């Protein structure tokens, strides 16, 4: 089985409501979908949604990279040139790794995001999540010390048995991080995620020495070396398919992390249903026990692709069958642009 055609399309996925992050507010996802066709008629799919502020990669970088690949048709040079740009390469690697099939079924527990417009809405939003049966939720924090403390106090003041994952998205300096972990010293805290910039390993080690709560790294984790470094300064690591290569590479990193005693959380909240489906299958295959964060499909307003993930508020169910050919055609039909169309891959 050999790949004979590679296409990359860019989709604009509008969101149900603005998604507020420490480094900006999103109103849509720019989704780049790779479609590989093999000589036996099978199809492989991959997806990447660049998120400026999360990493250095932008939609402009992806578009330019695929335009150059379209011009020179040199896959080896493409991988070498972008060895430090996983959002560029991962959809291509994933699509070319082999046919995409519904080879794994089951339920994928999902960690929802606690969302509010005003701090005083936090108790009612938690109550809604608890009433649905959720046992964990994610809380986004900001670099504003007062806002961060008020958010934490509002969560702690709400009577519930739920646990909370707090995500700083690289927004803290050390002083604010040290204060925050002291404020989070509460039975409902599961972890604090990525308080510092990607390469702040010394700050993470220093924070771990004084932190009464578990710490998790996300943006800092790209490859096996990063996983090994994380084992010295964190209790959790988070993986994302578009950041960590391909399904096979992702599974390898998960097993490495577990062998080093790290707890693993998988999932990307900034991607469409294709990426969520692929990560969901990895979640089940690797028997991960923590609720996943591949909840981007919940944020997308319209089901353009026809890949509906059945969601019962607590989890989505992996489909037992997917018409991948129709899914690929829907991607092309709704594409904002075709970034690459290469008919002789090898």
How would you characterize this protein structure?
By secondary structure, the chain is α/β, with parallel strands linked by helices. 36% of the residues lie in helices and 24% in strands. It has a 6-stranded parallel sheet with strand order 5-6-7-8-9-10, with helices on one face. Strand 8, helix 8 (224-230) and strand 9 (236-239) form a beta-alpha-beta unit. It is globular, with a radius of gyration of 20 Å. It starts with a strand and ends with a strand. The model has no long low-confidence stretch (mean pLDDT 95).
N-to-C series of helices and strands = EEEHHHEHEHEHEHEHEHEHHEEHE
Mean pLDDT: 95
Oligomer: single chain
- Look at the structure and give the CATH class of the largest domain: Alpha Beta
Full CATH superfamily name of the largest domain: Enolase-like C-terminal domain
- Helix content range of the residues, please? 25-40%
Low-confidence stretches: none
Shape: globular
Spatially, the strands of the biggest sheet line up as: 5-6-7-8-9-10
Output the structural class.
Answer: alpha/beta
**Largest sheet, if any?**
6 strands, parallel
Number of helical stretches of at least 4 residues: 12
Any idea of the CATH topology of the largest domain? TIM Barrel
The total strand number stands at: 13
Terminus-to-terminus distance: 12 Å
Number of structurally distinct domains? 2
Rg (C-alpha, Å): 20 Å
Strand content: 15-25%
């Amino acid at each position: 089985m050999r790949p004979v055609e590679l296409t990359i399309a860019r989709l604009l996925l509008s969101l149900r409501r603005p998604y507020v992050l420490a480094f900006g507010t999103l109103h849509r996802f720019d989704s780049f979908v790779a479609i590989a066709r093999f000589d036996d008629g099978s199809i492989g799919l991959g997806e990447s949604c660049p998120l400026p502020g999360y990493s250095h990669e932008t939609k402009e970088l992806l578009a330019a990279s695929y335009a150059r690949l379209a011009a020179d048709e040199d896959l080896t040079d493409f991988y070498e040139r972008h060895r430090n740009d996983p959002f560029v390469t991962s959809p291509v690697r994933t699509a070319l790794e082999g046919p995409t099939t519904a080879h794994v079924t089951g339920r994928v527990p999902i960690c929802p995001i606690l969302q509010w417009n005003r701090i005083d809405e936090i108790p009612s939003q938690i109550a809604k999540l608890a009433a649905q049966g959720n046992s964990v939720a994610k809380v986004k924090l900001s670099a504003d010390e007062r806002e961060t403390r008020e958010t934490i106090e509002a969560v702690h003041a709400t009577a519930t048995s739920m646990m909370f994952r707090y995500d700083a998205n690289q927004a803290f300096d050390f002083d604010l991080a040290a204060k925050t972990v002291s404020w989070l010293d509460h039975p409902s805290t599961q972890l604090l995620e990525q308080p510092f910039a990607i390469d702040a390993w010394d700050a993470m080690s220093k924070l771990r020495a004084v932190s009464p709560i578990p710490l998790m790294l996300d943006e800092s984790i790209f490859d096996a070396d990063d996983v090994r470094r994380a084992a010295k300064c964190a209790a959790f690591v988070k993986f994302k398919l578009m950041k960590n290569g391909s399904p096979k590479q992702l599974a390898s990193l998960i097993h490495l992390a577990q062998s080093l005693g790290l707890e693993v959380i998988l999932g990307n909240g900034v991607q469409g249903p294709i990426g969520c489906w692929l990560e969901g299958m990895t979640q089940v295959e690797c028997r991960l026990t923590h609720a996943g964060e591949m909840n981007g499909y919940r944020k997308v307003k319209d089901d353009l692709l026809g890949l509906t993930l059945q969601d019962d508020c607590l989890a989505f169910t992996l489909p037992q069958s997917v018409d991948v050919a129709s899914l690929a055609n829907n991607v092309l039909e709704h594409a904002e642009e075709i970034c690459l169309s290469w008919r002789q891959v090898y």
